[in-house]
Amino acid sequence: MKVNLYFANENSTSEKDLYIQKEFHAPFIPLLVVKEFTKLQAESENQLALFTPEELEKIIDLICLTFRRQFTVDDFYLGMPNDKFSEFITEFYNKVFNIQSNSEENTGKK
User: 4 pairs with which residues across the strands?
Assistant: First the structure.
């Protein structure tokens, strides 16, 4: 699994390079993440489609744990574009619960 986050470029010389994109990789989802996500689901009154602020915080912490703390919760909040979050969280959920997407089923990729 991978995630791309954006960080402020301290050496920026123009508006074009205000941010640097960094790619992070997690070779697998640790079972601890599955356990904690399952507990969060059981405690939630929602279907985790609409997160409370507390649920969102816990999920993002689990994302950071999955990526072995290569970035912080704040890094994730500041670096994840809003228009990419829904797609990413869906992919994350599917990986946690080993659910194949339609494209993975058609290509045989995981």
Answer: 23
Contact indicator for 80, 88 with CB cutoff of 8 Å: yes
Hey, what are 101's tokens? 């997407």
Instruction: Look at residues 103, 95, 33, 96 and name the one whose alpha carbon lies nearest to residue 69.
Output: 33
Predicted structure pTM score:
0.83
R_g over Cα of the chain: 15
Hunting for tokens 């919760």 — which residue is that? 73
Chain segment 40-94, per-residue pLDDT in tens: 888 887 765 678 889 899 999 999 999 999 999 999 999 999 999 999 999 999 9
Tokens found for residue 108: 């045989």
For residue 96, the tally of other CB atoms under 10 A from its CB is 21
Of 93, 38, 41, nearest in space to 63 by CA? 93
Evaluate whether 55 touches 71 at the Cβ level (below 8 Å): no
